[in-house]
Amino acid sequence: MRRRTVLSIATLSASGLLVPAPTPARALAVPDGPETLAPGVTLERSTSPGPVRQVLVRLAAGSSTRPVLLQRTLSSPRTPAELATAAGAVAAVNGDFFDIDRTGTPDGPVVLDGRALKASAEPQWAVGLDAGPDGWRGRVGRVVLQGSATVAGRPFPLAALCTRTVPPDALVLFGPEWGAGDRSLTTAGGLELEVRGGTVTAVRPPGPDPVPGDGVVLVASGTLAAALAGTPLGSAVTTDVRVLDDALPPGSTGFAVGARLELVRDGALTPVDEADPTWAALRARTAVGWTAAGDLLLLTVEGGTSRSRGATAVQTARRVLDAGAVGAVMLDGGGSAQLVARTPGDATVSEAVVPSDGGARPVAHVLALVPAPAGPQARTVALRPVRGAAAVFPGLSTLVRAVPLTASGAPAAGTPLVGVAAGAVAVEDRGPDEAGHPRVAVRGLTPGPASLRATLGTATGVLALRVLDPVTGLGPDRPLTLPAAGATLDVVVTGRDAAGREAAVDAGDVHVRTDPDVLTAQALPDGRLRLTAVAATPVSTWVRMSAGGLDRAVPAAVGTRPVPVDPLSDPGAWAVATVRAAATVTAVEGPALRLAFDFTVRPAEPGTTTAALVARVPLAVPRGATGLAVSVRGDGAGGWLRGVVRVDGASRPVTFAPRVGVTGWQRFVTELPATAREVLVERLYLAQTSTAARGRGALDLARLEADLPPLPAGTGTVPRRPRPRR
């Protein structure tokens, strides 16, 4: 018989309910040994002084799992999780550097199944990955386009295939694999010829019209655009496209992507220009390498988070060398450095590192590991806690799910039976989860070790767990702050015993009371507690949670109020820093600071140009702030407005606006982690990633503010009360 869950919703006053806010749940211990994701695929986590956290995925030689390059189209960025889940991958990392705020296309060449999708007449370095008789091998080589297009009898050399930037006075070929990217972003002015069936079907300015599936588009700039402007419709067009590729052997069915920096060659570190800030900075990094035994290595170093500061390019090279690499190259880093993996029993992948952006970033493409198709029958059963550690408190429950697995580690069909194998626990059926797999509530009876056993035919699985001592602390896993009426917040209620050990508590075991004019509460089938905001204006309140004989009051808030951090009126409080640019800061009427920039000082040098205001003394943000806001009067140039904040000692980038394209005042807000103990603002900056879009201009910035939830103040103790009867 399935138990009914009752949540009592009552008016709650702050009077007499004051207790310290619960501390966030401690991070679970990292397992010492490697985790098996699929046959021949392991994931290893490690932390070194700094602190620096890294995750290494190893694909063993001879495994039926294969590395695959995943992308929708060249100009359709997707998160690694989206691409990996759609392909059934067990792990994936981000790929090449890419045109992040414009076309979304990768910087370097792309070769897939022996065919070049993106290349340039200027030689570009690439890394090719291909299967050999003794495992996986990488090779660093150059990819060069040698091609031409003949329009109405006139031959023209091709400067590139599907490029992010059309060179001056050049002709570029775009095939259907280009995708939905706006080609007007690839060149200033110019024109394009749409070609179908070998004839010109349209002559127009470059734009977002899709490349026809049965044709191509030729984009011309400068003098070539003028030469082709009068091309009559119906004119004959032929193309001759040849690509010299040293990164893959002839006849290869592997793939190649851009390799901006080689890290390891022939088992030794390669020279790195440590004066280049791109390589010298401590930041998140991703690398791909290969061993003498034929193993493939995917390494991601977490950076820009409170738990990991990141690594330089040289440090990254040493880490992949220590893992046994005889060759390795750097992939994209910073906010793009991401690694996702599928834990056995999960239908989708999840983040194995915390992205420095604070959330998943869409990227041009990913390197993924995709298992070979396996039979549908279950080989094993994975028993895993739905939330937190494999632990439970006496008299309370935590949820466990049972997932049958195929030989590849993917979920299989069938419903395993779950029972108690040992120890003082009780099991109660809670029905299927969202994927249809059985879910049980495990209730602790007596402290000590215990175990569960699941069976499905000949497939079995065992989960060792522990019944902790009685619960002495109770609270949510995050601050109870909701932005506005109608917003929801799902939290895990976490308990703690006298020894400080923690476990998730099923929300069905928690008696919750709220002020119904401010918040409502609901226990979810997956064990979490859902709070829904009712109040329409910023307001503070308390939420009372009772379980295991404890009665605790937790502060909560709906909405935020702006709190000044800095008026941005004193230019003396800010220094100017630039990369491939020149800039000045002055005070203007508002009051505001005017950041005047010139991104044309190095017009041909590749890389991002930036102009930054650097706080001479980092600015403290009030604790508990959920957002940081700045008011900006733009110049219409369309730059990328970002900042750098130090969160609990680790610097991380934040984005206020992907493009400042208007000329009036706007208030931009970026999210902050409300759980942070300390947040300091270090810099505000404007960035331009496109060499074609570099120009001069100015931004006015005013009123740096924190969006602070109005959490109630006060401390105290709630007397212990009997647990409510159900």
TrEMBL record:
Residues 1-27 form the signal peptide. InterPro entries: NAGPA. GO terms for molecular function: hydrolase activity, acting on glycosyl bonds. The keyword Hydrolase applies. The keyword Glycosyltransferase does not apply. Pfam families: NAGPA. It comes from the Bacteria. Keywords: Glycosidase, Hydrolase, Signal. Residues 190-369 form the Phosphodiester glycosidase domain. This is Phosphodiester glycosidase family protein. It comes from Kineococcus halophytocola.
